[in-house]
UniProtKB/TrEMBL annotation:
AMP-dependent synthetase/ligase domain segment(s): 110-515
Protein name (record): Acetyl-coenzyme A synthetase
Gene3D superfamilies in the cross-refs: 3.30.300.30, N-terminal domain of ligase-like
Gene Ontology molecular function terms on file: acetate-CoA ligase activity; AMP binding; ATP binding
Enzyme class label: ligase
Acetyl-coenzyme A synthetase N-terminal domain boundaries: 40-100
InterPro entries with a match to the protein in the record: Ac_CoA_lig, ACAS_N, AMP-bd_C, AMP-bd_C_sf, AMP-binding_CS, AMP-dep_synth/lig_dom, ANL_N_sf
Domain (AMP-binding enzyme C-terminal) ranges: 571-649
Organism name: Elysia marginata
Segments passing through the bilayer: 155-177
């Protein structure tokens, strides 16, 4: 038995009562933008009944070079009535870069720190003010122009979590170009596909990056991708390379894991195509007028894989995304001028776009950009960084929380976390066990925990508590954000009123909703609007409890139907994780001759625990007791690690294949570590 068990026995007090409510901490509520639930309800009501007034007032806080030419909002969600279309403030001209930089500097924030940059290696850090960021962005805007990039052109980015990535994004936005960021962990093939789909003319990258103790030569991956593009007759004209790891001058220092400079990295530059960032920047002017673009002009595209099929280029436009990113950031994290805010997500994901870059900058706060990983050099890194910068609002993923829990509380408690006020999570349903640990151990029971549900497609939070106003329940994303009208539908499209479970859909448009799939509007309509005409379909399941709280139950494809009882994988997993020996769990459906489907589970044990036949029996019993006899898993297998996407989501599609011993697991390019597949095949339950 590991020490871990004894370190948080108190967690077990709560986990059996899903209805236990947690009041917003007084110190958070007292200063919050929204201080009571009644105030939330009032604002919510206006936001959905009079969206043009609600969002119109918010839009007034931004700069518009001209006003909308038609209706403030116009949309069609019903395929039977014509093409799906969503438009906010069409005809109005603005620029998001101007709004998050120039305007903040005009307000007197020029010398305020925009970002603390914290490198992979502790001690490697720097900071940049709003004014300095603005100058860098203007310079890079001129660099892009000089390379021939114009309004509407797509620019790919394949970069580590460094300030230059934010500079490049904002520079695109400043000149009206469209960024397409590809997480710098994708293979050359995945990068190639995304560059080709978006017909990018230019790419911005870096020499390399340390991710924990692992060294990645990004430039070599980009070279490979660009060679493919050239072979296809679609060469990328320019490639700008940030010298991040390799040293310019004397590089004689001994190389150390995770540390800069890194002498062993071999970089080749192709004369006609590749240019060093620093050289281009030195020569560039720091004056660049913003391009006034239409509210409905594209701002960026970002690929999302979904569970099957080729990645979709989710397209967001300028005006609506800007006000939605700003407003969700302000209210969900209750941002104030003195906050130090930290979202650990990589900018390569939507969470990084909205809540590392655009949202916090729009609110003029100071944030942390973190290049490293939660485990390097040890499991205390996140809390070390919280302590170092006195972070007040912190945002991470359940997968990070679960993986840190395994190492016990000491890694957390040895750091001072008294600055923390709001703790956010995103990415997956958070099981109550992890929620309680986050709340009690990380937050000392003194922070507001906000479980924010949203998608690449939704642009920002759609279901989330507000830190000062919403009583939370462990594992519930609670209530809709302003402007969001959720509904739960049965399989045949009937709205479930009151308590019940089904498909989570939205009934009306909000500013941050995606506008199309790049180059494939039909795919957009089919994926999100055809199954239930008149609704935007999230593809997730949800449950509404007696008190109206919403609980996300996971992707609809991940449901299990046992003898006619429909179960969400999240429920089963949550029950398993409550067991002291279990760190993570994933459950999938498996064919069964009598029940139709049965449940097959994969469990990752806490450090120091051993997988035994007895434990397997015990775990089956746990699920049986917690959910009901019908839910008892037929199979439990040991899983030293689970197949996860690079953003930390468990790929249950692959687990379903492993459970039935089908080696044809399909596309694994989005997996963080492909080797886990072989390990899991070797450990599968032979009788299944
Ligand atoms: C922001 C982001 C979207 C999918 C979404 C859902 C899952 C995200 C969640 C959550 C339960 C939460 N998801 N947040 N499930 N509770 N708080 O993650 O975007 O990468 O597009 O993924 O993630 O399944 O549909 P994206």
């Amino acid at each position: 038995m590991s020490d871990n068990k004894d370190s948080h026995p108190k967690l077990h007090i709560h986990t059996h009562d899903p209805d236990l409510k947690f009041d917003p901490p007084k110190r958070v509520a007292e200063v919050a933008h929204v201080q009571t639930f009644a105030q939330y309800e009032k604002m919510y009501e206006q936001s959905v009944k009079e969206p043009e007034i609600f969002w119109g007032e918010i839009a007034e806080q931004f700069f518009w070079a001209s006003q909308p030419t038609g209706a403030f909002v116009q949309y069609n969600f019903d395929v039977r009535k014509g093409p799906i279309s969503i438009k906010w403030m069409e005809g109005a001209k603005t620029n998001i870069c101007y709004n998050v930089l120039d305007k903040n500097i005009e307000k007197g924030l020029g010398d305020k720190i925009a970002f603390f940059w914290e490198g992979n290696y502790p001690g490697d850090d720097k900071k940049i003010t709003y004014k300095e960021l603005f100058e860098e962005v203007c310079k890079f805007s001129n660099v892009l122009k000089q390379l021939g990039v114009k309004k509407g052109d797509r620019v790919a980015m394949y970069m580590p979590m460094i300030v230059e990535l934010v500079v490049a994004m904002l520079a695109c936005a400043r000149i009206g170009a469209v960024h397409s960021i590809v997480f710098a962990g994708f293979s050359a093939e995945s990068l190639r596909d995304r560059i080709l789909d978006a017909s990018c003319d230019a790419i911005v990258t870096a020499d390399g990056v340390w991710r924990g103790p692992k060294l990645l030569n990004l430039k070599a991956i980009v070279d490979k991708a660009l060679d493919f593009c050239a072979e296809k007759g679609k060469p990328v004209k320019s490639c700008v390379v940030v010298k991040h790891l390799t040293a310019d001058g004397d590089a004689t220092s001994k190389e150390e894991k995770g540390k800069r400079p890194c002498n062993s990295l071999q970089i080749t530059m192709k004369d006609s195509r590749d240019r060093w960032w620093r050289e281009l920047m030195t020569a560039a002017s720091d004056h660049c007028d913003p391009e006034w673009v239409d509210a409905e002009d594209p701002l960026f595209m970002l690929y999302t894989s979904g569970s099957t099929g080729k990645p979709k280029g989710v397209l967001h436009t300028v005006g609506g995304y800007m006000i939605y990113a700003a407003t969700t950031s302000k209210y969900s994290f209750d941002l104030h001028a003195d906050d130090v805010y930290w979202c650990t997500a990589d900018i390569g994901w939507i969470t990084g776009h909205t809540y590392v870059c655009y949202g916090p900058l729009a609110n003029g706060v100071t944030s942390v950009i973190f290049e490293g990983t939660p485990m390097f050099p040890d499991a205390g890194r996140l809390w070390d960084v919280v302590d170092k910068y006195k972070v007040t609002k912190f945002y991470t993923a359940p997968t990070a929380i679960r993986s840190l829990m395994k190492f016990g509380d000491n890694f957390v408690t040895k750091y001072d976390r008294s600055s923390l006020k709001v703790l956010g999570t995103v990415g997956e349903p958070i099981n109550p066990e992890a929620w309680h640990w986050y709340n009690t151990v990380v937050g000392n029971g003194n922070c507001a925990v906000v479980d924010t549900f949203w998608q690449t497609e939704t642009g920002g939070h759609v279901i989330t508590p507000l830190p000062g106003a919403t009583k939370t329940k462990a594992g519930s994303a609670t209530f809709p954000f302003f402007g969001i009208v959720p509904a739960i539908l049965s399989e045949d499209g009937v709205e479930v009123k009151g308590p019940g479970q089904g498909y989570l859909v939205f009934k009306q448009a909000w500013p941050g909703l995606m506008r199309t799939v790049y180059g494939d509007h039909e795919r957009f309509e089919t994926t999100y609007f055809k199954k239930f005409p008149g609704y935007y379909c999230t593809g997730d399941g949800a449950k509404r409890d007696e008190e109206g709280y919403l609980w996300i139950t996971g992707r609809i494809d991940d449901l299990v139907n046992v003898s006619g009882h429909l179960l969400s994988t999240a429920e089963v997993e949550s029950a398993l994780i409550e067991h002291d020996s279990v760190a993570e769990a994933a459950s999938v459906s498996h064919p069964h001759s009598i029940k139709g489907e049965c449940i097959y589970c994969f469990v990752t044990l806490n450090e120091g625990e051993a997988f035994t036949e007895e434990l397997s029996k015990e775990l089956k019993q746990v699920v049986r007791e917690k959910i009901g006899p019908f839910a008892q898993p037929d199979f439990i297998q040991n899983a030293p690690a689970l197949p996860k996407t690079r953003s930390g989501k468990i790929m249950r599609r692959i687990l379903r294949k492993i459970a039935v011993n089908d080696r044809d697991v399909g596309d694994t390019s989005t997996l963080a570590d492909e080797s886990v597949i072989d390990t899991l095949f070797s450990l599968r339950c032979p009788s299944a």
